[in-house]
Amino acid sequence: MGRRLGAHIVDTVILVVLATPVVPFLEFVLDVDTEPGSLRSYFLTLILRVVYEPVMTAWKGATFGKLLVRIRVVDKEHGEPVTVDPAFGRYAVKEVLNIALLILPILFVLWILWALSPFFDSSGYRQGWHDKMAGTRVVEA
């Protein structure tokens, strides 16, 4: 589980570095003005996150953070690399919980349970809810 956390921290740093020039560019191209922390700003960064995590997972089986800590996402049943559909499905579950948290802060408890869900997995794969819904698991690379 420590590797997953490390990968998440690395990916967050990468996304912050990428968002610094990309979000202002998207604001210019889309002709919108956003304030940091606004809902519009959140959705502009969502574009970047949607391109980064599921695309990298489908292409390489891992994000840069996962590659760095030597873990990857595979199909639960066969241990094969995931395709585009499970990669986007896995990401969508995580993002829906993040958006719900923005709308209803009381859902923070649900977010904590989601983050800890691999610890309570009885399948032996330590799958998070997003892994279970997408039919994936994380393995050492």
UniProtKB/TrEMBL annotation:
<dbReference type="InterPro" id="IPR051791">
    <property type="entry name" value="Pra-immunoreactive"/>
</dbReference>
<feature type="domain" description="RDD">
    <location>
        <begin position="1"/>
        <end position="135"/>
    </location>
</feature>
<keyword id="KW-0812">Transmembrane</keyword>
<feature type="transmembrane region" description="Helical">
    <location>
        <begin position="42"/>
        <end position="62"/>
    </location>
</feature>
<dbReference type="Pfam" id="PF06271">
    <property type="entry name" value="RDD"/>
</dbReference>
<feature type="transmembrane region" description="Helical">
    <location>
        <begin position="12"/>
        <end position="30"/>
    </location>
</feature>
<keyword id="KW-1133">Transmembrane helix</keyword>
<keyword id="KW-1003">Cell membrane</keyword>
<protein>
    <submittedName>
        <fullName>RDD family protein</fullName>
    </submittedName>
</protein>
<keyword id="KW-0472">Membrane</keyword>
<dbReference type="InterPro" id="IPR010432">
    <property type="entry name" value="RDD"/>
</dbReference>
<feature type="transmembrane region" description="Helical">
    <location>
        <begin position="96"/>
        <end position="116"/>
    </location>
</feature>
